[in-house]
Amino acid sequence: KAVVLASGAHSVRLSARLARALTVSPLHRVDCDVQVALPVPLVLEDGQVSIQDCGDFWELAACPESPDCDPWELLSQTAAQYCPDAKMLRRYNGWVARSSDGLPLVGELPDLPHVYTVNGLGPWGFSWAFVAVETLIGLMVRDEDPGLLNLRRFLG
Questions:
Q1: Beta-strand pair 115-119/3-5
Q2: What is the per-residue pLDDT for 142?
Q3: 29, 51 in Cβ contact below 8 A?
Q4: Do 41 and 52 touch, CB atoms closer than 8 A?
Q5: Which among 40, 62, 131, 138 has most CB atoms closer than 10 A?
Q6: 22: burial class by Cβ within 10 Å (0-12, 13-18, 19+)?
């Protein structure tokens, strides 16, 4: 008898109150053919750029803190430094939503009864996804307080 809204950047169109709690930023990714392997993923530019070895290619991703910053500039600088001779295979664009404190939002939307959300995960959301979903399940099934991730911290 409830629904979960977890559509990231698109959710700001569905809930005006949620839109006030999130910043929407562009995310750009480039897959490159590189002959060397990375020992570990690299996170650069204060977390705005990541380079990850995906086996047959490297994935470079950029999501600037400010929506006004050009992610392609961050990617170009990183590529010039780490893989200047790489051949670009694919390029992806998208949008992500993040909260101002960088933590996910979990809770029931006050303007949409019985609609819950897990949102604001930002560009590297998989690091938070399982924690946020477990928190949401605790709220929906056992009526547990979402604590630090509570959506209401932004809605006052």
A1: parallel
A2: 96
A3: no
A4: yes
A5: 62
A6: buried
- Whether 64 and 127 have beta carbons less than 8 Å apart is answered as no
Strand partners, 53: 58
pLDDT tens across 80-108, in order?
888 888 899 999 988 889 898 889 999 99
Task: Give every CB contact of residue 39 below 8 A, 6+ residues apart in sequence.
Answer: none
Report the distance separating Cα 42 and Cα 127, nearest Å: 15
Per-residue confidence band for 140, with pLDDT thresholds at 50, 70 and 90: very high
Confidence band for 11, pLDDT divided at 50, 70 and 90:
confident
Q: Output 83-89 pairs: Cβ under 8 A, ≥24 positions apart.
A: 83/32, 83/34, 83/58, 86/32, 86/33, 86/34, 86/58, 87/32, 87/33, 88/30, 88/31, 88/32, 88/33, 89/31, 89/32, 89/33, 89/57
Distance set, CA 39 to CA 42, 48, 51, 58 (Å): 9, 20, 11, 12
Find, among 136, 125, 77, 69, the residue nearest to 97 by Cα.
125
Q: What is the spatial order of strands in the sheet that 105-108 belongs to? A: 3-5, 115-119, 105-108
Cα–Cα distance for residue pair 122/30, rounded to 1 Å: 18
